[in-house]
Design brief:
The chain is about 80% helix and about 0% strand. It has about 120 residues and is mainly alpha-helical. The protein has one domain. It starts with a helix and ends with a helix. This is Phosphopantetheine adenylyltransferase. Keywords: Membrane, Transmembrane, Transmembrane helix.
Length: about 120
């Protein structure tokens, strides 16, 4: 069962590390989110978001190899994914790229719940 949790956390680490490319600048952010950046302030916020995703992704990856970190990694993942899904639910008119991110996060949420339940049971 521990291998299942570790495998799920590895998948979640990859999901969280993919948007890190956004730290490279506005072109990467436009490709990721399908938005045009109208000012440098928005670019700074989104690039910082990429750094935060790197931190979450690296911690999820660390928890694959250090099982004592898995409960907190699952909690951090749940907070990250659930907060994004709540925000997307509260706003209308999402573009196709953001909708795609939300779909991936729904899958991530299910995986996190499965990992959490297994982690509790073992």
């Amino acid at each position: 069962m521990k291998i299942i949790v570790s495998s799920i956390l590895f998948i979640l680490a990859v999901i969280h590390l993919l948007p890190v490319v956004g730290v490279l600048g506005s072109d990467s952010l436009t490709k990721l989110y399908g938005i045009s950046l109208s000012d440098s302030n928005t670019e700074i916020l989104l690039r910082h978001r990429a750094v935060l995703f790197a931190i979450i992704g690296l911690f999820l990856l660390l928890s694959v190899f250090k099982s004592e970190y898995q409960p907190i990694a699952i909690c951090i993942g749940l907070i990250s994914v659930a907060s994004f899904l709540l925000l997307t639910w509260s706003i209308e008119g999402l573009n196709s790229e953001i909708s795609r991110v939300a779909k991936v996060d729904w899958v991530a949420l299910v995986l996190l719940i499965v990992a959490g339940v297994i982690n509790i049971l073992i």
